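Triosephosphate isomerase structure dump, as promised
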Amino acid sequence: MRAQIAAANWKMNLTLQQGEALLDDLSKATDNLDNHRVVIFAVPSPYLAMAQEKIKGKTNVFIAAQNVYNKKSGAFTGEISVEMLASLGIQWVVLGHSERREYFNETNALLAEKVNLVLEFNQQPIFCCGEPLEIREKGTQNDYVATQLQESLCHLSAEQLQKVVIAYEPIWAIGTGKTATSEQAQEMHAFIRAELAKKYGNEVADNITILYGGSVKAANAKEIFGMPDVDGGLVGGASLVGSEFATIISSLK
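C-alpha cells r here:
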C-alpha cells in the first residue's frame, strides 16, 4: 500500500507554548502507527527544533518546514536554506503551497529549483498544486494542474519523483463557502496519477502518495480518504485542534 499521510500545516499560527501543548495533546494519537501510516507536522520555522525534540523516538512521525529558499546560502536575510534544515534533521519540506504562490508570487520554475535543492539534500518535498476558482469555473483545471506538474516535477528522474509527495489543493474550495465533493477530489487525484503515468509509467505513478488539501476536517476525513486515489490529507485549520487532528489521523486507510 502507498504511504497514507496525515500532514498538519500550522501555517502562521500558535505561540511556542501553544505548539508544545498541541504536540503533547497529540502524543497518544501518534503512538504505534501502522507501518503505512505517517504523520507530519509542518510547523513555523522558529518551532522546528522544539517539534523535533517532541517527536523524538516516535516511528513514522516527522516534522516539516513550511518553505525553503531556492539558494543554498548567501546574503538572503530572513530566508531559510535546505542546509539549515538538514542540520536540524528535518526530512520534509512543503513546497508550492497555494498561499506561497498567491502572496509571494512563487512560479512553477522557481518551485522546480526548490524541488531540486530539497532532493539534493535528501529531504522529501510535499509538492502542492491546484487551481483557483476562475480556472475551475472555466473547466480548465486539468490543463492548469498538468502545467504545474510538468514545469515543476517532470524534469525529475523516476527515482527522484518517488521521493515526492503531491498535495492537491482545490483553492476554490478553501475559505470560499464552496465545497469540493469527495468525488471531485478523486477525479483530480486520478488525473494527476494518470499524468505521471504518461511520463513515468503506471508502476511509478501508482506508488506516488497524493494528498488532498481542501478543508479536510474530522467530519469528512473518512469519506475523502476512502477514495481510491486519495492517500491522506494536507490539513490546515483542523490540524490546530488536537481532537480534530487525532480523528483525521485515525481516518487514514
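The longest helix spans residues 182-200.
lmk if u need the other ones
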